[in-house]
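Example 3.2
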Amino acid sequence: MTQRCLHIFRADLSRIEACAKSGLPRESCGILLGAQTENGWRVSAIEQSRNVAPQDRNDRFEIDPALLLRTQKAARAGGARMIGVYHSHPNGKAEPSETDLATAWQTGMIWVISAVDVERMETCAYLREAAGFVPVPLQIMETEQ
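Structure, written as tokens:
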């Protein structure tokens, strides 16, 4: 069996990382739209969200509930469905934090995390399973075939 990957266009990954940089010193966030495939997950679009966390937005994120509702309605009408979320860790690591583990209740979702500071950027993907987060390799696509 081949390893499952997150397939994402370079342009979408660049948008996620640009969002992380522009959001400094706060966490940025958004959703990943797409589909699960036999060899992983394929991102078809991303939607940036306001970080509506009520406090400590430097180390917390909360996606705007209005965006989540619009996404769910669009999926029911035949649009792309949410396959995960992305967020940044300003001055942190590109791995799930204790807060992420405590708040990521929905299993089967992909989490893309960009660690960013003024000098570096690292982005990694994870699958949220019942026991925790499992790393998922990124497969960067240049253009749509």
